[in-house]
Amino acid sequence: MKLFLAGIATETNTFSPLPTGRAAFSTCHRGEAPGASELAPLLGAVGDWCAGNGHVLLPGLLAFAQPAGPTVRAAWESLRDELLADLRHYLEHGGIDAVFLFLHGAMVAEGYDDCEADMAARVRAIVGPDVPIGIELDLHCHVDERLLRAADIVVTYKEYPHIDVAERAAEVLELLESAQQKRIRPTMALHDCRMVGLWSTVSEPMKGFVAGMKACEQQPGVLSVSLAHGFPYGDVAHAGAKLLVLTDGDMEKAAALARQLGEQFRTLREAIANRALPLEQALRQAVQSAKRPVVVADQSDNPGGGAPADSTFALAWLLQNGVRGAGIAILHDPEVVKIAQAAGEGARLPLRLGGKTGVTSGMPVDVVATVGAIRTDYLHEFPQGDNPALPVPIGDAVALDCDGIHVIVGSRRAQCFTPKIFGDFGVTGLDIYIPKSTLHFQAGFAPMAGEIICMGAPGALTPILTQIPYRHMSTAGKYPWTE
Predict the structure, then answer these.
(1) Angle, vertex CA 366, rays to CA 362 and CA 367, nearest 5
(2) What count of Cα atoms within 13 Å lies in the side-chain half-sphere of residue 389?
(3) Rounded CA gap, 53 and 57, in Å?
(4) pLDDT the model gives residue 36
(5) What is the pLDDT confidence band of residue 33, given thresholds at 50, 70 and 90?
(6) What's the pLDDT at 481?
(7) Strand, helix or coil for residue 52
C-alpha cells in the first residue's frame, strides 16, 4: 500500500487577539528537516508502521501552529494548496493507495469556518471515490457531516490530556489498511450531544465513559468509537460535543450506538462540569492548604487554547500578598528573555514582566528579579503515557526569582505540561505550582500534587462558558445554558 501522509494542524480560538499567519506554522515538507515541525514524531511513527507492514510512506506537507486566533486566509490557502500539490505529485509519479490526514478539527481561517472539511473535500476531489481517506483529529474538534461526506475514516483522540496520539494514529492506519484491501466497508454516524465544555478523562466518571467506548469497540461490526469534545472557544455553527461511531457497513447500528452513547454522555453533564474558582479564592485556598504541593491551574491563560500566556493577575496577587515558594510557567515574554540573557545568570535587575498583549493579560508587573538558569532553544515535554513524550519548543527561556516567586519565561508561547520544567531550570522545593494550562497539566502534575485547584482568573480563555459572547454557535438547547 502506498500511503500518503500529510497534515495541517492548529486549534483556533476565534476570540483570541493573536492572528495566525504563515510564519506561525512550523513545517516539514516531504519528509525533509522533520525536526522543524512538532508533527515530526508522527512522521517517524507512521514511517515505522509502514516499514514494519510492507507499505510505502509518501510524506507530504506537515504543518503545525500553536493555538491562536483565526488563520489568515492567504496562509491557509497557501498551506492547503502546498499539501494538495504534494498529493498531485505522488499521484502523477506512481499513484496513491490510501490517504492519512493528521488534522486538528478546530481550525478556522478567514472565510473558512471548517478548514478540515475544506481540506478533505479537496483531497477527495483529487483522489476520487476509490482511495480511502483516514483522518485523525484532536478530540477538541468541531465535526459535522461535511467532513464525514469526504472521508472514509475519522478517529479522534480518546484521552484529555492527549496521551493517546500514537494509539489513535495506529488505529487509523489499521483501518485504512483494511479499507484499502476491501476487508471492511467503513460507515460513520454522528450524534449531537448538545453540550459544550472541557472534560478531563483522568478521573471518574469520564474515565469510565472512555472505558465504555473502548468496550463498545469489541462489539461485532463496530470498528471505532470517538467522543469529539468540541472546542468551546471556537465560535462556529457546528461547535459542541458529538459522538461518532464507525461500523463495518452497518449505518443502522452506527446511528443507534452513537445515539445511545451520546445520550449516556449527556447524563453526566453535571458530574463532569469544570468548576473553576475565582482568582483570589483559588490562591488563598492554595496558600492555606496543608496538602503540599498545591497545583493551581491558570486555565484562563492557557496558550494551548489560544491565550497569550502573558497574563499577570496571579503573579501580581502573589507579590502583593507576600507569598513565597510559588512557581509560574510558562509566561511568554520574549523581550524579558532577551534582557535576562544579556544580563546573565545571577544578575539582579528591574524588569517589566508580562501583561503586554492586551486587556486580557492584565498590566505589566514591575519586579526586581534575580536571573536564574538560562536555556537556549529549550524543549519542554508533553507526556504521552507509556510512549515517549512529545517535544514542545519554547525557544530561549529563563528562570526569574521575583522575591520568592519563581517564573519560567519563554520566548515562544507554549502550554505548561509537566513540573519537570522547574527542575530543568534549577527551581526546586516549591509549595505552589501555577501552570498556564486548562487540563493538560494533569498528566504531568497530578502524580505529585497534594491538591489541584482550577483557577478562573481574568483572561482570554475564561472557563465560565456562559460568559462567552457567541455569535455563530447557537446556545439554545445546549448545556450549560440549558439543563
Answers:
(1) 125
(2) 13
(3) 11
(4) 53
(5) low
(6) 97
(7) helix
